[in-house]
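Blinded run. Sample ID left blank on purpose so nobody reads anything into the name before looking at the predicted structure. Input follows.
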Amino acid sequence: MDQPETQPRYLIVSRIGPDSLHPQWIAGAAQGRYDVLLSSFAPLPHLHDTPGVTVEHRPGPKVAGYSGILRDHAARLARYDYVCFMDEDLRISADQIAGCFALAAEHRLKIAQPAFAWGSHFSYAATLRQPQFRLRFVNFIEMCCPIFRQDVVATIAPLYHSGLESGIDLIWCNAVAEGPRDFAVIDAFPALHTRPVGGKARANGFADVHGYEAHILDALARYGVPRHRMATYEGLRLDGRTVRGRLPLALASLSVFGALPQQPKARTLVKCGFDMLWQQVLLGARNSKITLEREP
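Blinded prediction complete.
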């Protein structure tokens, strides 16, 4: 569908609450670089529509909220080249967001995400910034800030409608994977993940962070996908060179240990870092191929 010249090519959608960091990154909407849809799960009477920013109130947990957005705003979402579902606790500038969108478009990525700046809370060490790279083509993009190409949104939407509040990110790349350059972590424009993983567990219907695991296991079993850990197919260095091969990529990933002095939990980085190296050297990046049934 042709878009008016005045409409940005990109959209950010975010489920937010009273302590959201969205004021730091919606400046790009006022500049016309991308549009923003803020969907509050708590009443925020001070929020109003502004140029490039639409505000709605939608109670409920995170994924269920995105499910409603995908249904209620389907026609609007289809107008953009890329749609990003951004967590409210990311500290990232308008320039960095615009850079991520631009690189996703340049490489025709199906799903992408910014790397996490050193000092971030994280689940996978491979998401931490590796400063020698512009971006890394990987097998898995996590749930914190996925940037979906427009045609991919419709394909993965059934995962948001599945009733699962965790684990769907382990499925979506496998539903659209065709080659090793489909997905990427963008190191050139990192975001700081400011809260511990699972910090909103109760708001999302879990007694604690450990409750997510049941949904993860349910997702893997429901869609018949093995639990592929994050690994890199190849990396594009800042100097223009491409790095391939399990061992060269593993050696390059050692750069994440430079983040140790800045990490909130250094032991977590050590453990996850060695898990990352084991995955990269012994197994490498891999995807399964599955088909999701689309809604009628």
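Unblinding after everyone has recorded impressions. The radius of gyration is 18 Å.
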